[in-house]
């Protein structure tokens, strides 16, 4: 085994260990026992225990089942497993994806709105367009706003 093979194996092993710790942390946050999670995800207790300890590397399908059982984003698990690159958006996007009180649809909606704000701010920074102030705020006449809300 060459030096490159060892370093790749080391990265994979760390990712699997990190994934297991992440799953365990999400399970603890959700206050679900290992047995409950295994049952909800449709996997055996020993298998899930091995995943959490970093001894097993679950497939994308199993990760999806675990994510559904934890009520978290499958994307978050895919990123932890190294299957998928993280979305841009930094800690805000990560927090949205990790929130167990939001549905997948709500998470996606929030991420879409957040991404649109970021795109808008990038384009505002590149060039201040007519109708926008130096701070990037859209100039709106009070007459236009007033007419929208009049009964």
TrEMBL record:
<dbReference type="Pfam" id="PF01381">
    <property type="entry name" value="HTH_3"/>
</dbReference>
<dbReference type="GO" id="GO:0003700">
    <property type="term" value="F:DNA-binding transcription factor activity"/>
</dbReference>
<dbReference type="GO" id="GO:0003677">
    <property type="term" value="F:DNA binding"/>
</dbReference>
<dbReference type="InterPro" id="IPR001387">
    <property type="entry name" value="Cro/C1-type_HTH"/>
</dbReference>
<dbReference type="GO" id="GO:0005829">
    <property type="term" value="C:cytosol"/>
</dbReference>
<dbReference type="InterPro" id="IPR010982">
    <property type="entry name" value="Lambda_DNA-bd_dom_sf"/>
</dbReference>
<keyword id="KW-0238">DNA-binding</keyword>
<protein>
    <submittedName>
        <fullName>Helix-turn-helix</fullName>
    </submittedName>
</protein>
<feature type="domain" description="HTH cro/C1-type">
    <location>
        <begin position="23"/>
        <end position="77"/>
    </location>
</feature>
<dbReference type="InterPro" id="IPR050807">
    <property type="entry name" value="TransReg_Diox_bact_type"/>
</dbReference>
<feature type="region of interest" description="Disordered">
    <location>
        <begin position="122"/>
        <end position="151"/>
    </location>
</feature>
């Amino acid at each position: 085994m060459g030096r490159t093979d060892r370093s790749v194996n080391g990265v994979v092993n760390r990712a699997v260990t990190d994934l297991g710790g992440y799953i365990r942390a999400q399970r603890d946050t959700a206050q679900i026992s290992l047995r409950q999670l295994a049952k909800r995800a449709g996997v055996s207790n020993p298998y899930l225990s091995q995943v959490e300890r970093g001894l097993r590397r679950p497939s994308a399908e199993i990760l999806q089942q675990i994510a559904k059982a934890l009520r978290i984003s499958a994307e978050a698990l895919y990123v932890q497993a190294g299957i998928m690159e993280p979305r841009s958006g930094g800690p805000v996007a990560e927090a949205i994806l990790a929130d167990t009180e939001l549905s997948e649809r709500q998470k996606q909606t929030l991420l879409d709105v957040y991404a649109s704000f970021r795109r808008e701010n990038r384009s505002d920074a590149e060039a201040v367009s007519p109708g926008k102030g130096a701070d990037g705020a859209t100039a709106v006449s009070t007459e236009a706003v007033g007419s929208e809300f009049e009964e």
